Amino acid sequence: MTDNMGANMLRNTLRTAATAAAASASFAATAAYDVDILPPASPIAQQIYDLHFAILWVCVGIFVIVFGAMFYSVFTHRKAAGAKAAHFHENTTVEIIWTVIPFIILIGMAYPATKTVLEMKDASNPDLTIKVTAYQWAWEYDYLQDGVKFNSLLSTPRAQIEEWDKKGEKKNADYLLEVDKPMVVPAGKKVRLLVTANDVIHGWYVPQLGVNQYGIPGFVKDTWFKADKPGTYRGQCSQICGKEHGYMPIVVVAKSPEDYATWVKEQKAASPAVMVASAAPAGAASPAEDPNKKWSADELKALGEKLYAANCLACHQATGKGVPPAFPALDGSKIATGPKGAQIALVLAGKQGTAMASFARLSDTELAAVITYTRTAWGNKAGEVQPSEVKAARKG
Amino acid sequence: MTAAAHAQDHAHHDDHAHHPTGIKRWLFTTNHKDIGTLYLWFSFTMFLMGGVMALLIRAELFQPGLQFVNPEFFNSLTTVHGLVMVFGAIMPAWVGFANWLIPMQIGAADMAFPRMNNWSFYLVVPAAILLVASFFVPGGAAASGWTLYPPLIIQQGISIDMTILAVHILGASSIMGSINIITTILNLRAPGMTLMKMPLFVWTWLITAYLLIAVMPVLAGAVTMLLTDRHFGTSFFNAAGGGDPTMFMHIFWFFGHPEVYIMILPAFGVVSAIIPAFARKPLFGYASMVYATASIAILSFIVWGHHMFTVGMPAAGNLFFMYATMLIAVPTGVKIFNWIATMWKGSMTFETPMLFSIGFLCLFTIGGFSGLVLAITPVDITLHNTYYVVAHFHYVLVSGALFAIFAGVYFWLPKWTGNMYSETLGKAHFWLSVIGFNIAFFPQHFLGLAGMPRRIPDYALQFAEWNMWSSVGAFIFGFSQLLFLYVVIECIRSGRKSEQLPWEGADTLEWTHLPTPAPYHTFETAPVVK
Amino acid sequence: MGNAPTGGYYFAPPSHWPLVGSAALLVMAFGGVMWMNSIGGGGWIFLAGLAILFYMLFGWFGTVIRESEGGLYNKQVDLSFRWSMSWFIFSEVMFFAAFFGALFYARVYSVPWLADIDNKLLWPEYKGAWPSAGPYLPPQFTAMGAWGIPALNTFLLLSSGVTVTWAHWALKVGNRSQLILGLAATVALGFTFLGFQIYEYVHAYSDLNLKLTSGVFGSTFYMLTGFHGFHVTLGAVMLTVILFRCMKGHFTADHHFGFEAVAWYWHFVDVVWLLLFVFVYWV
Ligand code: HEA
Ligand code: HEA
Ligand code: CUA
Ligand SMILES: [Cu+2]
Fold this sequence. Notes:
heterotrimer; A: 396 residues; alpha+beta; Immunoglobulin-like; Cytochrome Bc1 Complex, Chain D, domain 2; five-stranded mixed sheet; elongated; B: 530 residues; mainly alpha; Cytochrome C Oxidase, Chain A; 18 helices; binds heme-A; binds dinuclear copper ion
């Protein structure tokens, strides 16, 4: 527990109480009391939906019958109503009946479920394959046939989230379910996902598409979906993956095949500079980038700040103070103020057994920029790093 | 031989006539009733601690945004809440019941190994200290979820090592406790107390003890591998070295699923004692109850994969685990039906233990049904790691295991303390609990269906309403437990004296052959059971 | 048995030993945690805890031995001991099962999976043949062959199973000298086994480059053999204690559960070794 958390708790308790009062007044008007699975948007999701409701109603039926009997008994066979206890305590026939009937009901449930399982597991003959790599805390989408590759990160501003010592800003409608660059797929096509992870286990979960697949570091697992129609489908990481687990949403935008084709063209045409400017780190292998270009310190720093916010801030914090001891401060850190080589090496390789992962997926220019930023921001005055130096370190 | 007999008499005398008083009585005790009491108070303390963590979780989730805790600390709260409730609250409570009741119900004077019994208890204390102290070490307490999955857990700090060693110690405690229980049941029954005459609580604990012996060592093995992966460079769970994080899940859930039945089988036993007593009618289908319990236990070893439908097992694996899991509904159903048949044509009264048992019956079944929904692989795909799962397991654990614990405490309090609790307050506790509990956890089904993941400190706006209800319910439920504490203390200190047989229909040995309250030593000569 | 089951059953009086044992484990846990995380003094604290643990073991077992020799344990108590030892050994079986499970899982699932077609995306070069150190660490180690020291060790352990049984026969017919001879031979064989195992580890580290860090092969190899070796050590120490007790004249032809418990344990360790020999070294 951090020091000021106690004080925060007190303040926030009061504020929460006030909100509670206000909220309950305006409840009926705005409330979203969903009691249902989200509308399915793929054939598998549709089957899941149907299965769920079939089973739910069977269970409700059993519940009503069984507990109907019990409550009947509770009301009529009570001592207060003058009931005298019977003495029976065995009956093989009924025992057999109530063993066999549930068994038959279960077979009735298992049959359609089996069909869906087999279909779900059959990822063969896809129209399109996307490799999904989970990072703490971003999704990387690599379109294996189309040669498009980018990262997708939460785009909700921190100021809407953090309310520890202030009232948060007004929240976006898609608060926590919005990303800078969604996964784009063609509607009506079978999309195969090859899911893996870089650091810890994550879960690629989009309920409306009927997909929930762990990404397991070092292993590739496949799954698939086919979006019925164009639209935007949202989900979240489904497996606890560290402190920002609640902040790695997934957005899938299904477009008509034509729109999808246009989108692919645009992505390919876009220069890495554009991607970088949107603060979405591009893949390491952006062909158009020139690692031998010499950048000015200010250029690097400006670019680096964006990249820092996207990639490093979650752990090392905007202030550079980190959250010691779990996440060390970069402000004044020995490595971020010491020789360049050591820091380049660390950020490239990460540190085994800690949350500090390898950032080799960033391009040379991007790495140079973000490292420059950490070496010159806050109180640090260690000077810039050029892409060529990163390139050299990568080779070495 | 006569000398030996003499020594025997002598020891007998020493042992049974006096016991130390004051704090030494509690520290050095080898008396099963004292140890049972220690377990029960320990469990309740841990329940409050775990409950306070739960309330912090619910406070943070009261509305979207981060108000009280940071995400890292939130994850620690979730993790330690789970660990403390499972290993600190529910399991020790059942061991407490076992200690108090098993010797009395089978006509034995004590547990087979009284000294080891003491150690079983005094091992859970260091484990609890390690768990709780881990909040205060650099880096904060374990924040990986109670399932301790690598590689996340490899990344974290010192607290993980403390958690791992706590699990080792708890394992040692559970294994010794189970061996003690098994030996007591198999070897110390009174003449005439055949296996098929034992009260069901004894049966369920016998089977539970076997589950414990079979799975606690496996958990110990799993966390040992975590430890060596963390500190000694092994690669069990590291793909780069040829291992697999999924392997941990398999080993963990091989333990984990039987573990959930470890928490629920004794509850079945307690309910099987209470319902006949208040229906004034013998338990329906005794033999099938025994067989059903055994079937559940056996099946529990082959269903673990239902926690892993989303890791990408081959279709055959998914199907196998789905079918096996669904099968458990059959023996569990048998139990539910038997209890209802016991009530049928009885002459029922509804004192607090009976109320909690009926609450257990309805709400546990709801939890069982949501379990069945989760067992359907495709449906689990859309519900895995959402609040639907959280709702499921709180229905089986809180309104299942915990309600049965409450029922059992109210039922046996007169036997334990000699005093009667306040029926009015007991009933108030029941109604507040049922209402608070359902407000807290029923909406979580809806949250899960709408796709809200678990273990997140903050959520999208469409989840706000039900979360608010859930938090309100949690606070109602939580604070009603203080009433329970009050009822128990009041009963001990100033309760009205209980009659010899406070419950008309109770007919096991502890009621029929022993005074109320049960004296410090019982059955020094074994009763004869017809 | 005959008499009413609980009549004359010995129930231990209040004791401080359990508490001492718990204190020991608490100290050891804290020391161990500090040690593993290189916090100063951790190792010493751990050792202090271990010392307390030994103190407790001496005290507790001493009490048990006195009670036993004092004739406090009747037939029914003896039967309790038998049940408890059997189930304790069962729990150990399950402990080993976790590690064997890891070995089978690695060989049957994870290593082949890592080399399958989808995983070519991540590990293009990996072939996945066992023994393997995984796709990332180059497998420059040599696996330990079965027919050198391991085969010799198999022979040693099997012989020790025979000698302990021989000693048991002697105990049952009251032949003290054969009992002591048999036990002493068992202890000697046990310690020789351990000596060879230490030699084997040194050899693995210095000549074969087979280390704890050699991927999943090294992990399972050392975990299984090491955990087994730890059990052999415990068993050998317990056998030694029994040997001394025999020399002091403890146990009678029909009352010697302490002896039998250790013998059972020893046989269990023996069987585990056979499994190890087959699955770790041989196939
Ligand atoms: C006491 C604890 C307890 C109990 C008894 C159960 C009982 C069951 N559980 Fe549950 N479960 C947990 C504790 C428990 N569970 C916990 C803690 C988790 C989460 C762990 C984590 O991830 O942190 C979990 C998670 C969990 C999952 C994984 C969900 C996920 O992570 O995606 C699944 C999936 O199959 C499941 C299924 C079941 C089933 C089928 C039963 C069955 O035993 C239920 C059987 C009962 C009935 C079905 C009702 C009565 C029967 C009848 C009236 C007969 C007629 C009925 C029919 C014919 C339908 N449980
Ligand atoms: C085993 C039993 C058990 C019990 C009894 C409970 C009890 C409760 N649990 Fe929990 N829970 C689990 C087992 C249990 N839980 C497990 C295994 C997990 C999964 C962990 C994981 O994901 O890894 C979990 C997770 C879990 C979550 C999900 C967290 C997340 O995913 O991030 C939530 C959220 O609502 C929750 C809530 C509650 C609540 C409100 C209670 C209430 O019943 C609590 C009642 C409250 C009290 C008893 C408090 C009483 C005290 C006071 C009123 C204050 C008095 C103060 C003093 C005396 C000092 N639990
Ligand atoms: Cu990524 Cu949770
Ligand atoms: Cu389970």
